[in-house]
Amino acid sequence: MKKALSIITCLLVIFMLFILPASAANNTDTNFSISITSTSVTSSNSATARRLKTDTSSSYINYTKLADKTTSASGPYKFIAKIYGSATSSSAMVDCTSYVHNSSGTVIGYRSDAVVTKGSVGLIRQDVYEMFGSGAYGQIWGRAYSSSYTGTAKGCWSVDSVGSYSYYNASTLY
Amino acid sequence: MKNVLHMLCGIICIAVFLTSCSDANIDGNSKNLLAGEQTTVINGYEFPIDAVDHDHTYITANDVTYLGIGDTINDYVCLSNEEIGDFERGVKGLTYTLNHVTVYNSLSDAGVSFDDCYDLYDEQSIPEINNNKFMVVDMTAYYSIEDGNESSINVSLDFDIKFWNDKGANYHDIRPSLLWFSMHPVETDEELDRNKQYFVYRIKPGEAADFKLGILVGESYVNEHDVYLAQSGPEQKIDGFTPYYFKLFSEKTEYMYGEDLSR
Predict the structure, then answer these.
(1) Tens digits of per-residue pLDDT, A103-140?
(2) In chain B, which residues have their Cβ closer than 8 Å to the Cβ of A23?
(3) Burial class (CB in 10 A: 0-12, 13-18, 19+), B16
(4) Residue among B102, B101, B94, B100 nearest B73 (CA)
């Protein structure tokens, strides 16, 4: 019995090692600056280039401070954020946030809008790495929550994340 | 003892169940998008046409102003444009000068510890990292404003690594990526988070700071001399915005692993 217990304990330890998330991630904060003009136009971050996605983690958004941690975030009170992805650093980007796919690539659901409110920090669910694999890139885009909230949204973000924060969006199957 | 055994088995079963759940690729009854909605397929995934950005033209090699060793760039950029709104980046009075570039055979040949690097890779990747070239870029930051305020400011180092010949996802050669910054915050820094603010440093008015950047580079990018240090900014072509890139390969670039055969 002791032997069986030892084997199971070893298996458990090995298994836990596999399920623990890797510590490496592209999770340093870089600034975003997004022109929020209307509810129908989604604009790209113009502060930094798209970033290498290294895992399947959600993306992190900080709409309280810039990356220097001293300058306050600025811009419209609310905006809708999306994470776009691409296979290369220069190919056309696609919205990897709004749709849920099955393993065949068919759309089987959608995600609610990620409404980012000034003063908040949180995560956006997206599937950049799942869709494009190793070497994929992600970028934050945004559009107006309503025509009352326009301007240039400035804060910081990271394409990967480590740690627990609340999610800005949720998935729903059709 | 049996109870302990059952408990362990239970934990394993729960762990297996949890790892089988994933936010992406949820299997279920497939339904199409809205009837009549035009779709396109990218990398095997179906998207509505309007989910793909076809509206922008991205910067190409011909749109860039290249700078070299000995050149200086202003960190502060300000412009107003209909497409990107009021664009402002960097710190007024802060400049960066490119002093020197050295290409080493590997991270360890450059004398840089993996533990000192930005947390982009885990420890299992060390052998792969050491199979790739490592560029060390010597630069100087100078903060010229002297308005009586002697306190230091936090600055986020705002550069991107660029290359023009992108071979696509899952290409065997590791892509150029910024992996080391000699002035990164230490673990014991009470104000800056070493992981999330790795590229943030402090500088005083009137002070010059010499620092080094380390870039992990696949061999093909070295052979093609295709690595640039770019001032962060829009990726799209924007009227009135000139992107500045430091050209890291030049006749002054040193190769610490032998003769550069590609020239």
Answers:
(1) 999 999 999 999 999 999 999 999 999 999 888 999 99
(2) 119, 122
(3) exposed
(4) B94
In a mutational test of the A interface, the residue from B1, B196, B216 whose CB has the highest number of chain A CBs within 10 Å is: B196
Output the pTM of the full model. 0.83
Contact between chains at A5 and B86 (C-beta distance less than 8 A): no
CA B214 to chain A, closest CA, distance in angstroms equals 16
- Chain B interface test: which of A14, A62, A94, A157 (most B C-beta within 10 Å): A94
- Residues A18 and B129: their CA atoms lie apart, in Å, by 22
Q: What CA–CA distance (Å, rounded) separates A137 from A88?
A: 7
The token pair that represents A170 in the structure block? 């949720």
> How far is the C-alpha of A91 from the C-alpha of A73, rounded, in Å?
30
In chain B, residues with a C-beta closer than 8 Å to the C-beta of A104 are 30
pLDDT digits (tens, 9 = 90+) for A27-81: 999 999 999 999 999 999 999 899 999 999 999 999 999 999 889 999 999 999 9
Question: In terms of C-beta density within 10 A (0-12 exposed, 13-18 middle, 19 or more buried), how is residue B111 classed?
Answer: exposed
CB A32 within 8 A of CB A133: no
ipTM over 0.90? The verdict is no
Asked if the C-beta of B36 comes within 8 angstroms of chain A's C-beta atoms, the answer is: no
Q: How many Å from the N-terminal Cα to the C-terminal Cα in chain A?
A: 49
DSSP classification of residue A57: P
Cα distance from A138 to chain B (closest Cα, Å)? 13
Angle at B121 between CA B68 and CA A23, to 5 degrees: 140
Answer whether B26 sits within 8 Å of A29, measured CB to CB: no
